[in-house]
């Protein structure tokens, strides 16, 4: 209590009285906060005395700052601590103008200096979760009603990975702050079957990301990778699939046994044809749904190398990964793998007079005598001597 009184005396010398409310419902408005603080005189009224903070995505952060007129108003407001707005209890504590400006600055309300934050005059948003086939036209249609800074090809920047494939992310530049705020309301709306996340971004982050994406784009080659092909598909059918685009060569990928595995590479005459061919993603050859991805000549292959990493099947039923030719999956060892004959009690007996019972639950020293000894991965039967 003494610490509180000393802090309150400091606040009185500054003649500014600030409150910080946390835990607000995201749907809470200025009017809801004013009703919660009924009985306190808010400096400048609820329109200027209550400041609701927003995060870098432009959404409600659940916090607000309130400036009241007197120390009595401050004391009265602190008694509201842990009372409810809607179904949430609210934390009420003293604050200062410096804390308020610092928090607003971190959320991009003012010009900020820390890397990754955004400023209100950039008017840039970042989209995540876009369909891979979405181009500038589809993104511009998604933001219908918002004016782009320039033409859609210059204002919409699609991010690509090191193979030149779209990552499902893009930056969009808008003309005014109003258009920027309107675009943020598109957050989690759908483009096709995918919902799109829309958040604010800074020009520095956009330029750094696009510079990296441009390096990858410069190293791109007109080579595509296809997956999901029918096993009986031929080179001519693949060329017909991409008609009228000019295909230079096609390579159907086969396993080490010479059988097609449903994959192929296709090389085009130009990057322009390559980009148009990517729009074939999801179309069909026969009854098969074909996936088309950007690739590179370094991945081109005629045969999948059996020495590449693959899953090994262990004898105990588990799996591990490794490099080398695949070992045959021998399955479970059978108790009937030896030359056995059924005895009068319905049990199997080997030529050496040993009995084998695949249903026995008895384990002990006799189990060690089984083929493979105690290391046998499937000790589901017990070896015993006749008359035991």
Descriptive labels:
disordered C terminus; 388 residues; 11 helices; alpha+beta
What order do the helices and strands come in, and which of them pair?
Blueprint: H1 2-14, E1 17-22, H2 30-36, H3 45-49, E2 50-54, E3 60-68, H4 71-78, E4 84-85, E5 88-89, E6 91-95, H5 97-106, E7 124-128, H6 136-142, H7 152-155, E8 156-160, E9 166-173, H8 177-184, E10 189-191, E11 194-201, H9 203-218, E12 223-227, H10 235-241, E13 247-254, E14 260-268, H11 271-277, E15 284-285, E16 288-289, E17 291-294, E18 310-313, E19 319-322, E20 340-342, E21 348-350, E22 355-357, E23 382-384
Antiparallel strand pairs: 1-3, 1-6, 2-3, 4-5, 7-9, 7-11, 8-9, 10-11, 12-14, 12-17, 13-14, 15-16, 18-19, 20-21, 21-22, 22-23
Concise structural overview:
By secondary structure, this protein is an alpha+beta fold. The protein has eleven helices and 23 strands. The N and C termini lie far apart (86 Å).
Notes on the structure:
- This protein has 388 residues and is α+β, with helices and mostly antiparallel strands.
- 24% of the residues lie in helices and 28% in strands.
- It has 11 helices and 23 strands.
- It has helices at residues 2-14, 30-36, 45-49, 71-78, 97-106, 136-142, 152-155, 177-184, 203-218, 235-241, 271-277, and strands at 17-22, 50-54, 60-68, 84-85, 88-89, 91-95, 124-128, 156-160, 166-173, 189-191, 194-201, 223-227, 247-254, 260-268, 284-285, 288-289, 291-294, 310-313, 319-322, 340-342, 348-350, 355-357, 382-384.
- The strands form 7 sheets. A 5-stranded antiparallel beta sheet has the order 8-9-7-11-10, sandwiched between helices. Strands 2-3-1-6 form a 4-stranded antiparallel beta sheet, with helices on both faces.
- Strand 2 (50-54) and strand 3 form a beta hairpin.
- The longest helix has 16 residues, at 203-218.
């Amino acid at each position: 209590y003494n610490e509180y009184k000393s802090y309150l005396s400091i606040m009185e010398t500054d003649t500014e009285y600030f409150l910080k409310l946390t835990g607000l419902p995201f749907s809470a408005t200025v009017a809801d906060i004013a009703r919660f603080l009924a009985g306190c005189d808010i400096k400048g009224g609820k329109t200027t005395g209550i400041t609701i903070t927003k995060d870098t995505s432009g959404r409600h952060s659940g916090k607000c700052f309130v400036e009241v007129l007197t120390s009595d108003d401050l004391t009265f407001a602190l008694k509201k601590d842990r009372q409810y707005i809607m179904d949430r209890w609210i934390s009420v504590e003293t604050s200062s103008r410096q804390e308020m400006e610092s928090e607003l600055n971190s959320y991009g309300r003012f010009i900020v200096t820390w890397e990754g934050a955004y400023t209100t005059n950039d008017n840039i948003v970042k989209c995540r979760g876009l369909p891979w086939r979405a181009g500038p036209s589809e993104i511009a249609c998604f933001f219908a009603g918002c004016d782009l800074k320039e033409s859609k090809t210059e204002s919409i920047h699609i991010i690509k990975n090191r193979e030149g494939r779209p990552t499902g992310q893009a930056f969009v530049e808008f003309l005014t702050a109003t258009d920027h705020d309107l675009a943020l309301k598109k957050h989690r709306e759908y483009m096709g079957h995918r919902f799109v996340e829309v958040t604010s971004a800074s020009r520095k982050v956009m330029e750094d990301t696009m510079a990296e994406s441009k390096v990858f784009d410069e190293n791109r080659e007109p080579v595509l990778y296809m997956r999901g092909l029918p096993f009986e598909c031929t080179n001519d059918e693949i060329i017909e699939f991409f008609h009228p685009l000019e295909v230079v060569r096609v390579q159907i990928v086969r396993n080490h046994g010479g059988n097609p595995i449903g994959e192929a590479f296709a090389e085009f005459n130009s990057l322009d044809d390559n980009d148009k061919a990517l729009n074939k993603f999801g179309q069909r050859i026969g009854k098969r749904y074909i996936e088309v991805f950007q690739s590179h000549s370094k991945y081109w292959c005629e045969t999948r190398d059996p020495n590449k990493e693959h899953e090994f099947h262990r004898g105990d039923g588990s799996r591990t990964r490794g490099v080398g030719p695949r070992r045959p999956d021998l399955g479970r060892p059978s108790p009937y793998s030896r030359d056995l004959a059924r005895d009068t009690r319905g049990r199997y007996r080997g030529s050496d007079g040993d009995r084998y019972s695949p249903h026995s639950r008895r384990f002990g020293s006799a189990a060690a005598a089984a083929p493979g000894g105690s290391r046998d991965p499937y000790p589901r039967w017990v070896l015993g001597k006749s008359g035991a």
